[in-house]
Amino acid sequence: MRTWLPMVIVVALICAGLWFAESPPEQLMGKRPTRKEQNRAPDLVIRGAKTRHFNPEGTLAYRVDADKISFFQFSRRDRANLTEPRILFYQEDKPKWRTVSHSGVAYNNGQRVVLKGDVKITEQPAPGGVHLETEQITIKPRQEYAETNKVVNIIAGPNHTRGKGLRAYLKQDRVEILADVESSYEPLK
């Protein structure tokens, strides 16, 4: 019996060592990382990102470029932080609307994108088209829809419109300003 005792102790120590090595300290201590701690370490970082998204017919619908994308995967959702994002929407294989901003956050695999910081949306080809500016806007790229409750400035040639809140149906080239609308128009000569 004495010859087996050292062998059992060695096997038990090896098993305990393997279990300790394979278990994160949070699990051993019974602690889970806080949401803030989860947000600190992205699952994936891409610099100089260029993505292309196609419609069901196989033609290019829009593209998203960003200086940096930090991707976070959670149990029920995902999120991607975007640095200097640029989105270009296409209609009939031609660029139609271009967005730029300082930062953005894409949720649920890009189904909803919130752009922040000096957001500009420009009708292509620029110059000459409609130009929209706001501080923050939510875009649903697959529906080519954008909305905000912030102040919006729209410039179309010499005409200027300012208001609070906006719904933009990019595919239909239709924009609705929701409140406090002020416009100045230059009449045609």
Mean pLDDT: 81
Biggest sheet: strands side by side, in what order? Answer: 2-3-6-7-5-4
- CATH architecture annotation of the largest domain: Sandwich
Q: Give the DSSP E fraction (strand runs of 2 or more residues).
A: over 45%
- Note the gap between the termini: 109 Å
CATH fold-level name of the largest domain: lipopolysaccharide transport protein A fold
Estimated radius of gyration = 26 Å
Structural class: alpha+beta
Largest sheet: 6 strands, antiparallel, barrel
Low-pLDDT windows of residues: none
Question: Secondary-structure element order, as H and E?
Answer: HHHEEEEEEEEEEE
Top CATH class of the largest domain: Mainly Beta
Number of structural domains: 2
What spatial form do the alpha-carbon principal axes imply? elongated
Count of helix runs: 3
What does this protein structure show overall?
The protein is of the alpha+beta class and 189 residues long. Helix content is 16%, strand content 56%. The protein has helices at 4-22, 25-29, 35-40, and strands at residues 44-54, 60-73, 78-83, 86-91, 94-100, 103-107, 112-123, 130-140, 145-156, 159-169, 174-184.
